Amino acid sequence: MAPAYKRILLKVSGEALAGDNSFGIEPPFLQAVAKQIADVARTGVQVAIVVGGGNIFRGMAGAADGTDRVTADLMGMLGTMINALALSNAIMRQGVKSKAFSAATMPSVADTFTAREAKASLEDGLVVVLGGGTGNPFFTTDTAATLRAIELECDVVLKGTKVDGVYSEDPMKNPNATRYDIVSYDDVIGQNLKVMDTAAFALARDNAMPIIVYALNDKEGLAGVLAGKGRSTRVGDPI
Ligand code: UDP
User: Fold this and answer.
1) What is the DSSP string of 127-145?
2) 174 C-alpha vs ligand 1 centroid, how far in Å?
3) Ligand 1 atom closest to Cα of 11?
4) What is the pTM of this model?
């Protein structure tokens, strides 16, 4: 059976690479994420990834400690490049071709992102790993994920979290919170459901880009989630 999606954008947060630690990259977690991605790529789905950097540096935290916000966000974006290089290399070690791109120009580190070059790599079967967020301060890698998905004409954004979808309230705090199978952009924005930031959801809404929220530890793995197995929430227009 042909895969349901031709091209996907996967958002990998920094914390997914840090495992049980709050800082840095834990090799077994890095390899586990890379394996899930490689398994999906082998099914013929084109995979673009936006990596976060919260396991290395968050601009808001730096700004709270007195570093000016623009500088702190540049530091955060550099953190995402460390993760992008690590993840791209780990995917290659799984036997799948991959290439890292950077939103900021750093030619000795990675190719500078252009939608044209990234699309060409996807069409050649490479998993593209996009570091540096949007390249601008005051944004997050969730917004970068939505932006790149639109630019690269992906079918969907996949956002892995600690829980298996979008809930009416934080299910870690209220075990009676309701889980949605499908929820509209306006509801996630209006109810301030904190799965991604508002800018990311607004950009997705304005460009009709669906977002699937799933549990990173789903037993079916990413391939299962893409096949519609397991539990997840689709944020988007009704189908
Ligand atoms: N960042 C930024 N612009 C962007 C994306 C990210 O300035 O377009 C900075 C920001 O400081 C952020 C940090 O990079 O805190 C790490 O990204 P994020 O917090 O989104 O990572 P995640 O939480 O997904 O690991």
Assistant:
1) EEEEESTTSSTT--HHHHH
2) 28
3) 24
4) 0.96
